[in-house]
Specification:
It is a single chain. By secondary structure, this protein is an alpha+beta fold. Helices cover 21% and strands 25% of the residues. A hairpin with a 2-residue loop joins β24 and β25.
Length: 721
């Protein structure tokens, strides 16, 4: 019979096995953290309302809508100052959400709440070593402004692309093309994650509370919650009464009694600020009331038709167009586009071929919606897209689908009209309407959502100071200029032979309150900012790349013969206006000891003309430059051989050759360092991974430990789209 040892030996073996298991678990945890998955805490609300930083979880006192309100160090400081002033100390962990406004009804008298921590997310590390990043991924990366921080944003632009924000949408120009096209969220799960509430009719506000709050307000400052109203007050076919039968206005009942009088229309009555890109998460963001009108919308409801001849229409307006989805109980679906009132007299034209789905008059409610987003209109039934606008050009027959009426150029021209100083044509508020016809039907859970609207802010210094600003100062970045990638200031993301240097563009979903690629002017000195090899990086010159005293002296030593020296040759290629201004520079300005704003403007003009020379053929002519004794560096050898062999250089190689020529001609005046980093971008070597899951949302509190959320809110655990 086998012997297994004494009881003490059994206990010792058990302890040894337990210790070994613990050590194996620890080792596996460290291996997973280092190479597979790592957990991160979100510090700010730049990705709200999908991902939260420190925040207050609020329930609107007027309508019951739950929403998060961002918290920060500045708000904490303000709360303490108010507590000192009022001599009222808040409860442990409790803070007053000053400025918090319900995103659906507009009520702003909110109760105190506890500060909840930021969401904790799991990140797949090194994923992008095996597959390329995709637009709209939510990524974690080292902050280019401070490599000690980790940031989480949404990936917008890929290497080689040119990105420009126009009216809240992202437009992209692919390498080798001249036209911009819109960057769509083709994965509907990504789009579903980015919808934000404008008005949810299930959360109807308490009118008494609204009235009490408005007693202390001026006429222009009153809270005016959105409300659905009959377009014709005398048409009583829609029953919107606030009583128990209608669930206090949450259920819309249409009593058609056949086909009398045509469609009965409801219209969403909203104030002018409802369609601006504002968030319940923020106190309030600045927006241009003439142009920042959000019209990427989704109108949705649960519809129950009584018979096959019941008909429903959902309409959304954008600029001077109205898009309408006609849905019938027999399953017929039609999508049309027409002008708004006063914008034209054309009849609505179809945007897509008419379709027929399974009958909807089957005794059940069906979720139906019309979506206008990313320059595309679509109709959805029970989570499936059944019709969408055509991308083809207009067909000659009037009953054929027409092309969607707006594009990049149309938007740019329309925004110019809205900004004209005289006789401007502001962008109209979107029309939002519902109509019913035919037999009886019921509509409930009606809500209006909007897409993320990316704003185009101006650059400001913010809290940045010190060496992190050296890079932007060398570039001559001006405060108040347009942000990177914003309207009128597109950003081109470079590609390199070393993929680690490739550039990406990111933005936060909470666009008005996100410090992202649009506004980065700081660059950590630990980044790989420059390259001295002579062929890698941006060949364009910046103000700080030029030693101005040496450069101006070289120009002014010219002769009337442009072939006498490189300086004379470059002088001859400058515009007469710039040459005249250089001649008028004072001795102190030539020494760069003193310069007013006009001298700084002249530097920018000169750099602009030099960069045009660098990009154009003809700057480097081998015979002339050899005659001047200018020897190009070895890095230019292959480019020169190809040029001498009459092989046409690509625009990028041409710019490289011309930059090397200017450097060789004026070694004391032109810096040999080429920039491998571009402000506003994330280099590939700074990518950490893709955020995939919120594993610990803001937690519940234990009685007696109200300030310590130690139990995660399991219901908010979610995949990140």
């Amino acid at each position: 019979m086998a012997q297994y040892g004494t009881k003490a030996q059994h206990e010792l073996a058990s302890i040894r096995d337990t210790v070994q298991s613990i050590w194996v678990a620890i080792v596996l945890a460290f291996v997973l953290r280092a190479f597979v998955v790592e957990a991160f805490v979100i510090p700010t609300g730049s990705m709200a309302p999908r991902l939260y930083g420190e925040h207050l979880d609020l329930v609107c006192r007027a309508c019951g809508h739950e929403f998060a309100f961002g918290w920060s160090v500045d708000k904490e400081r303000g709360a303490r100052e108010e507590a000192n002033r009022t001599r009222r100390l808040p409860a442990n962990g409790e803070r007053k959400p000053k400025g918090a406004t319900c995103p659906t009804c507009g009520y702003d008298q909110q109760k105190d709440a506890y500060v909840a921590g930021g969401d904790r997310v799991l990140v797949m590390k090194y994923l992008y070593r095996f597959q390329p990043p995709k637009p709209w991924d939510v990524i974690v990366f080292k902050n280019p402004q401070d490599n000690q921080q980790n940031y989480i944003k949404r990936l917008i632009g890929l290497p080689g692309e040119t990105i420009e924000i126009v009216h809240g949408d992202v437009f992209v120009r692919q390498p080798g093309t001249d036209e911009f096209s819109i960057r769509r969220k083709d994965d509907h799960r990504v789009q579903d994650a980015m919808w934000q509430v404008v008005f949810d009719n299930d959360f109807r506000p308490n009118r008494d509370l609204i009235e009490i709050a408005n007693r202390r307000r001026t006429l222009s400052d009153k809270i005016v919650p959105p409300q659905w109203r009959p377009r014709d007050p005398n048409d009583g076919r829609w029953k919107l009464v606030d009583n128990a039968e209608s669930q206090y206005g949450r259920v819309f009942r249409f009593t058609g009694a056949g086909d009398k009088g045509g469609p009965a229309w409801l219209e969403l009555d909203v104030d002018d600020g409802r369609f601006l890109p504002r968030y319940g998460y923020d106190v309030g963001a600045e927006a241009d009331g003439k142009t920042d009108i959000v019209s990427d919308l989704k109108l949705e409801g649960a519809w129950q038709p009584a018979g096959p001849d019941s008909r429903l229409a959902l309409s959304i307006g954008s600029f001077e167009y109205v898009f309408t989805a006609h849905i019938s109980g027999d399953g017929s679906v039609r999508l049309v586009c027409g002008p708004t009132e006063g914008a034209g007299s054309d009849d609505p034209r179809p945007l897509a071929p008419d379709v027929k789905v399974a009958p909807l008059a089957d005794g059940r409610g069906h979720v139906v919606s019309i979506r206008h987003v990313d320059l595309r209109v679509s109709v959805w039934i029970d989570g499936q897209c059944v019709a969408e606008s055509s991308e083809e050009g207009p067909a000659p027959a009037a009953d054929r689908p027409m092309k969607y009426p707006m594009d990049y150029k149309w938007l740019k021209d329309r925004l110019k009209l809205a900004r004209k100083p005289v006789n401007a044509k502001p962008i109209p508020q979107p029309l939002v309407r519902i109509a019913a016809d035919g037999s009886d039907s019921v509509l409930q859970h009606v809500k209006l959502m909007r897409d993320v609207y990316y704003t185009s802010p101006r650059i400001n210094r913010g809290n940045a100071e010190g060496p992190v600003l050296d890079f932007s100062e060398r570039l001559g970045v001006q405060m108040g200029s347009r942000g990177w990638g914003t309207e009128g200031h597109p950003i081109t993301l470079e590609t390199f032979d070393d993929p680690d240097l490739n550039q990406y563009f990111v933005m936060g979903d909470n666009s008005p309150s996100s410090l992202d690629g649009r506004l980065w002017i700081a660059a950590s000195p630990t980044l790989r900012l420059y390259d001295d090899s002579g062929l890698r990086g941006d060949p364009n010159l910046a103000i700080g790349d030029v030693d101005w005293p040496s450069f101006l002296r070289a120009l002014l030593r010219r002769t009337d013969n442009p072939d006498s020296s490189p300086g004379a040759y470059i002088w001859s290629r400058l515009s007469p206006d710039v040459r005249g201004q250089i001649k008028n520079l004072t001795p102190s300005e030539l020494r760069d000891e003193y310069g007013d704003e006009s001298f700084d403007l002249l530097k920018r003009k000169i750099v602009g003309e030099l960069n045009r020379m660098i990009a154009a053929p003809g700057l480097y002519a081998p015979k002339a430059w050899l005659r001047w004794g200018v020897m190009l560096p070895d890095a230019a050898g292959a480019l020169v051989q190809r040029q001498e062999a009459d092989k046409k250089l690509s625009p990028k190689d041409l710019a490289r050759l011309n930059r090397l020529a200017i450097q060789a001609a004026m070694p004391e005046a032109i810096s040999p360092q080429w920039r491998t980093y571009k402000l506003g971008t994330v280099p590939q070597y700074s990518l950490i991974g893709k955020a995939i899951f919120v594993y610990w949302p803001s937690g519940f509190r234990v009685p007696g430990l109200s300030g310590l959320p130690i139990i995660p809110n399991v219901g908010r655990m979610r995949l990140i789209r």
